[in-house]
Specification:
Blueprint: E1 3-8, H1 18-27, H2 38-44, E2 50-54, E3 57-58, E4 63-64, H3 67-75, E5 81-83, E6 85-87, H4 94-104, E7 110-112, H5 114-117, H6 127-135, E8 140-143, H7 159-168, E9 174-177, H8 184-190, E10 197-199, H9 205-218, H10 222-227
Parallel strand pairs: 1-2, 2-5, 6-7, 7-8, 8-9, 9-10
Antiparallel strand pairs: 3-4
Helix pairs in contact: 8-9
């Protein structure tokens, strides 16, 4: 079974501030379309049996997708899509959004964007998030590593912060997105210590090759483990929006 664990639901300009849109144009030539269309995505991911889809919430960077819209999008493709809720715990009311997204909208996991939102995922004031996710067995997928937005502090997304979370919440199911580029080695170093931590390879080819070298050097049987990991290496087409 092949599962794409990182796909977005975006509508542009509705879900983005003007500065966010301008910065995507600054770093890509030509600028890529931030609108996500299921038909376009499936044309590139025909081999996927299931797709995890979420929006994103980061007031600092200028990105906000209501969870109700993600739930409706996932429901309209219920034979293939699994919806996750998103949180920006730097904003008031995030606990209510957590409960609503999980209990009312029936979303199956949590998406965090620490560097886009400017918070530290291991901050003690967010312990309730990890307690809730652990007790309800909700996987938490975090953006780790760098990005192109200038209002996104890299210090908030270092893999070592997840080490602290995993020690204190050993039942948490954590997905570290993008291999934490350029900190792939630190990302991989977390994995053998904690059964609940995995990573995915929706990132550039250089990062995947770097990961391969690190992984084979420290994890027994790494060649077979990597072959079974989803999504597949960068030879598989993915939506450019998944880089966010």
């Amino acid at each position: 079974m092949l599962i794409d664990v990182h796909s977005h639901f975006f509508r542009c300009p509705e879900h983005f501030q003007k500065d966010f849109i301008a910065q995507t144009r600054r770093v890509t030539n030509p600028a890529f379309d931030l609108n996500v269309r299921w038909e376009d995505y499936r044309a590139q991911a025909k081999e996927c049996d299931w797709t995890v889809v979420f929006g994103g919430k980061a007031a600092l960077a200028g990105l906000w997708v209501p969870d109700a819209e993600v739930a409706a999008y996932a429901k309209s493709h219920a034979d293939k899509a699994i919806g996750f809720l998103s949180l920006d715990p730097s904003q008031a009311g995030w606990q209510d959004e957590l409960h609503h997204g999980h209990q009312d909208l029936k979303l199956k996991g949590i998406k965090l964007m620490p560097m886009y939102a400017g918070f530290y995922p291991n901050d003690r004031k967010f312990d309730y998030l990890w307690e809730y996710a652990s007790s309800h067995q909700l996987p938490v997928l975090l953006h780790t590593g760098t990005t192109f937005i200038d209002r996104a502090p890299l210090d908030c997304t270092l893999p070592r912060l997840i080490d602290d979370v995993a020690i204190r919440f050993p039942r948490a199911k954590i997905i570290m997105a993008h291999l934490s580029h350029p900190y792939e080695g630190e990302c991989v170093a977390n994995m053998p210590m904690f059964m609940g931590i995995v990573r995915h390879s929706t990132t550039d080819r250089f990062s995947f090759i770097t990961l391969l070298c690190w992984f084979r050097s420290i994890v027994p049987g790494a060649r077979s483990s990597l072959a079974a990991t989803t999504p597949s290496p960068p030879s598989m087409p993915v939506s450019r929006a998944s880089a966010i």
